From TrEMBL:
It comes from Sphingomonas alpina. InterPro entries: AAA+_ATPase, ABC_transporter-like_ATP-bd, ABC_transporter-like_CS, ABC_transporter_ATP-binding, P-loop_NTPase. This is ABC transporter ATP-binding protein. Gene3D superfamilies: P-loop containing nucleotide triphosphate hydrolases (3.40.50.300). Residues 5-234 form the ABC transporter domain. It comes from the Bacteria. Keywords: ATP-binding, Nucleotide-binding, Transport. One of its GO terms (molecular function) is ATP binding.
Length: 314
């Protein structure tokens, strides 16, 4: 893996005694889309703020393309673009002037062709002379991305990029992020929208209560932890599940018209053949069988629940 960003032993404890991060270790590969999943207050924004030099860590180091983010702040920060959750722009300024000003802040000047390219990619070129206050919420968020890209960073951080936008705009943003990655930008996004990570990410990190619970490739995560479910459509509705079927831990659905069986698809024995034999022995007829995979959301909920259980046990 060609590592572009390395986080080692990073923690953050505030003066109040609150610990927001517990010794996080994380390496990001060049050109990947990495999604950091977690509920509100899990530590996502704190971690990004430390990497971007906004918050100082209590312990640990952050290295961006070989530059220490604390001791070589300017060199490291120049390589990073940040799109924050909150709007942080001068509402009376024009789109073009705002983006050009952000570029100059990083010591870069000129290169109007690049600024035009960014604005065109974000469908903002026709709005370049409009004041920020005149734009829709979705367009304002695009301006934040343009500002973050203005100095040509190698890594782009998106903190809850589609929070508060409608579904249609959210999908447009997903396409945009893929285009940015195709141009060589490394993308790191925080989100609590599970479908966002499922749609875009190469790897997924799950963070809860300041602890990085797991980091894994999305496909491998879903393969290793994902469960499947089988829905059995019965010929006759069932009021209660017979005790003879207890070992399969079935659930009744659709007013007793369907039986739900959840199983581990990676297991050597799924229990399906024996279940179907038992149904036949009991004279329980069925019309249809339907199987489906668990979603990333199911996996996320299970992981967070496991983390909480381990915390209680500890």
């Amino acid at each position: 893996m060609d590592t572009i960003l390395s986080v080692s032993g990073v923690s953050k404890t505030y003066g109040s005694g609150t610990t927001a991060l517990h010794s996080v270790d994380l390496d990001i590969a060049k050109g990947e889309i990495f999604a950091l999943l977690g509920p509100n207050g899990a530590g996502k924004t704190t971690l990004i703020s430390i990497i971007c030099g906004i918050v100082t860590p209590s312990t640990g180091t952050v290295t961006v393309m070989g530059h220490d983010a604390i001791n070589e702040f300017r060199a490291a920060r120049r390589l990073v673009g940040l799109v924050p959750q909150e709007l942080s722009v001068d509402m009376f300024e024009t789109v073009l002037a705002t983006v050009k000003f952000s570029r100059r802040l990083f010591g870069r000047s000129g290169h109007d062709a690049y600024i035009e390219e960014v604005l065109r990619d974000l469908s903002l070129w026709d709005k370049r002379d409009a004041r920020i206050m005149e734009l829709s919420g979705g367009m304002k968020r695009r301006v934040l991305i343009a500002k973050a890209l203005s100095h040509e960073p190698d890594i782009l951080f998106l903190d809850e990029p589609t929070a508060g936008v409608d579904v249609s705009l959210r999908r447009d943003m997903w396409k945009l992020i893929h285009r940015l990655r195709d141009k060589g930008t490394t993308i790191i996004l925080t989100t609590h929208y599970i479908e966002e990570a499922e749609e875009m990410a190469d790897r997924v990190g799950v963070i809860d209560k300041g602890k990085l619970i797991l980091v894994e490739r999305k496909a491998e995560l879903m393969k290793r932890l994902g469960k499947r479910q089988m829905l059995i459509s019965l010929q006759e509705p069932m009021g209660t599940i017979p005790p003879e079927l207890e070992e399969w831990h079935l659930e009744l659905e659709d007013e007793g018209k369907k039986l739900l069986y959840i199983f581990d698809a990676t297991s050597e024995r799924t229990g399906i053949p024996s279940l179907l034999r038992k149904l036949a022995e009991l004279g329980i007829g069925f019309k249809d069988l339907e199987t489906s995979k668990s979603s990333l959301e199911d996996i996320f909920v299970d992981l967070v629940a496991q983390g909480k259980a381990e915390g209680v046990a500890a």
